[in-house]
């Protein structure tokens, strides 16, 4: 009986620990990969990277949308500049707004373009890594999530 309880406890612990380990999500462009944070809900998309002190180099935030369209971003309540990259349904870069500064005033400019996925990375990395319009974007660890989203 005790042996059965110990085995059950051990298996439960292992299952719990595997559940805590998240699959690393990343996006790769020109063999440069970024660890992703994905804004899935409307609330996460509205908040984005606002109020954060910084975005670590090598990290990015992805905003996936169910439909392609014109999506607008602003830098209200941001503390650091970004490169904002619009990506189409074929996962090709269609537009890059580079070195977008934070906005600390009441009215902030909007940066808008057509796309299906929008990627935010640290300012200057598009130029540093040679990321250009027309480049293919690889989202290997998000294929299941993106396929589910596209089927809705």
Automatic annotation (TrEMBL):
Gene3D superfamilies reported in the protein's UniProt record: Protein of unknown function DUF192
InterPro entries to which the protein is assigned, alphabetical: DUF192, Saro_0823-like_sf
Superkingdom classification of source: Bacteria
Signal peptide: none
UniProt cross-references to Pfam families, sorted A to Z: DUF192
PANTHER family per record: UPF0127 PROTEIN MJ1496 (PTHR37953:SF1)
Name of this protein: DUF192 domain-containing protein
Organism of origin: Candidatus Nealsonbacteria bacterium RIFOXYB1_FULL_40_15
Lineage: Bacteria, Candidatus Nealsoniibacteriota
């Amino acid at each position: 009986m005790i042996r059965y309880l110990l085995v059950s406890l051990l298996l439960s612990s292992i299952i719990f620990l595997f559940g805590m380990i998240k699959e690393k999500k990343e996006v790769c462009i020109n063999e440069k990969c970024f660890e992703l944070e994905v804004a899935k809900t409307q609330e996460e998309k509205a908040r984005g990277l606002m109020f954060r002190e910084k975005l670590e180099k090598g990290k990015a935030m992805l905003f996936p949308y169910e439909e392609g369209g014109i999506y607008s971003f602003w830098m209200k309540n941001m503390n650091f500049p970004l490169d904002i990259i619009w990506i189409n349904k074929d996962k090709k870069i269609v537009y890059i707004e580079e070195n977008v500064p934070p906005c600390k005033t009441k009215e902030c400019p909007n940066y808008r373009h057509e796309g299906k996925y929008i990627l935010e990375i640290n300012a200057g990395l598009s130029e540093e890594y040679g990321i250009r319009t027309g480049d293919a974007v690889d989202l290997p660890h998000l294929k299941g999530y993106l396929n589910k989203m596209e089927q809705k």
